Amino acid sequence: MKDFGEIHTDGITSLKISKNGNWLFSGSNNGELKQWDIQYQKLMKNYGVVHSAAITCMDISNSYNYLFTGSYDKTIQRIIIEKLSISDLTGMGHDDCVSCLAIDRQDKYLFSGSHDMHLKQWKISAGNFLMRDFGKVHDSFIKCLVITNDNKYVFTASKDSM
Fold first, then answer.
1. Mean pLDDT of all residues in the chain?
2. Which of 30, 43, 68, 128 is the most core-located residue (most Cβ within 10 A)?
3. Does the pTM exceed 0.90?
4. Is-contact 86 42, C-beta < 8 A?
5. Residues 23-35: what's their mean pLDDT?
6. Is position 6 within any domain?
7. Which residues contact 29 (CB under 8 A, 6 or more apart)?
């Protein structure tokens, strides 16, 4: 286990490693996001505060172009990794905490689950284009979601055992 020293000024609430194993993204309770170089154990980019509340989840596109973050502030942010910048996604979110995110294998769609019990599908190339709101898919908040390798199915899980 490697020690990167003091990483955030507030508690870390979410971590994501890039699929190539080169980068670690860390999100904190105060909405701050940082990108780390794993091999050299150093900070690559401090994005600052990207959410007004704790970052709860993250996913990285397979092309490594985008990192999406979800938060207790009910929003989803898109970070353009190559440019080390944040893309404004006004209107992209839920009516309650965004609890989980998953990107399909072709980087076409982002799926988001929430404490509002809704599953949503977003078209990545359009930025904040809501493609489909599947509505309330559980009787309790969505804790996690996964997409099958062939992109045919999205599975969600909740406390309601469904």
1. 86
2. 68
3. no
4. no
5. 94
6. no
7. 10, 11, 12, 13, 54
